[in-house]
Amino acid sequence: MVADTPELVPLLAHLARISRRAAERAADDDDTTLRPRHVIALELLRDRGPMSQRDLGAALSLDPSNVVGLLNELERDGLLERRRDPRDRRRHVVTLSASGVRAHERSAHRYREIEDRIFASLTAAERRAVHDLLSRVAADAADAARPEPRD
Amino acid sequence: MVADTPELVPLLAHLARISRRAAERAADDDDTTLRPRHVIALELLRDRGPMSQRDLGAALSLDPSNVVGLLNELERDGLLERRRDPRDRRRHVVTLSASGVRAHERSAHRYREIEDRIFASLTAAERRAVHDLLSRVAADAADAARPEPRD
DNA sequence: TATTGTTATACTCTATAACTATA
DNA sequence: TATAGTTATAGAGTATAACAATA
């Protein structure tokens, strides 16, 4: 008898690399598709509303020092805004912009084209099942990363 | 109406990072757990038998120049062997060792402990479903990466 | 000429430490 | 003192180019 519980962690890393390389091969030279972590950042802001850089970094599982660079890029392109929190001037409150919503939609569309090839062996229902289950895991991880619910 | 087909690529990258960081936090200082791509490499050799570095790299979706370093590590620790193919002396045939099988099992066990936390919001059946579906995608990707079936 | 494996190298991603400004 | 954000920096991961050996 072998593993009664499967090891998913190496499999996730493996498929993440396959996906990333497929996206790179599919990209033109002047490709503006957002990279995965940009997409996730915009989704978190869209689904959970404005939040501090700290909370965003925790939800992304990204080191604070790297959140800075990520937000610099997204802010430079006008996809979000950073404003100082008047109630705690140490904090920057990050807010998604209308451009950010549109950019997210464009990139999501591009990723779906890539997925049509990578996940061709799954039926539409199976793809949806994988997406729903993994989304739940990601949402719970984001909740767990923010132990103090605001106000 | 929003996305009728989900975007999985960013989600996979996101969960891969969450998993990797959870594994790092759980590791002792003298941790010998194999990293995800080592685990996948050993699994490919176990499930598909000996193959050339080129084919292994293609199945891993890893650049040939980086396959070298990966195999150097695994060979140094005795988990696999490289032998010149007598029928084509350019090729190195990579073969899993008995130590490699044991090392894989130990690491797989460690990853399962980490997954118990990450995937706590899924039932055992749901975890199995995700694993089975993603395994199929990975297996098909590995097949597609080796377009010429040997003899 | 083309392919396999290799080396050298640059670029991206990520973590750690030290700093600043605020609390 | 402690925390949010930032900067600097080193290490890991990865891709590209050039090379040697072999076909």
Question: Greatest chain-chain interface?
Answer: A-B, 54 and 54 residues
Q: CATH topology of chain A, anyone?
A: Arc Repressor Mutant, subunit A
Q: What is the averaged pLDDT score of chain A?
A: 92
The CATH superfamily of chain A is Winged helix-like DNA-binding domain superfamily/Winged helix DNA-binding domain
Instruction: Figure out the total of helices of chain A.
Output: 6
Principal-axis shape of chain A equals globular
Under CATH at level 1, the class of chain A stands as: Mainly Alpha
Q: Using only CA atoms, what is the Rg of chain A?
A: 17 Å
Tell me the distance between the termini of chain A.
51 Å
Order of helices and strands of chain A: HHEHHEEHH
> How many β-strand runs of chain A?
3
User: Which band does the percent of strand residues of chain A land in?
Assistant: 5-15%
Q: Which architecture name of chain A does CATH use?
A: Orthogonal Bundle
> What oligomeric arrangement do these chains adopt?
homodimer
The helicity of chain A comes to 55-70%
Largest sheet of chain A: 3 strands, antiparallel
Enumerate the strands of the largest sheet of chain A in spatial order, edge to edge or round the barrel: 1-3-2
Estimated structural class of chain A: mainly alpha
Poorly predicted runs of chain A are none
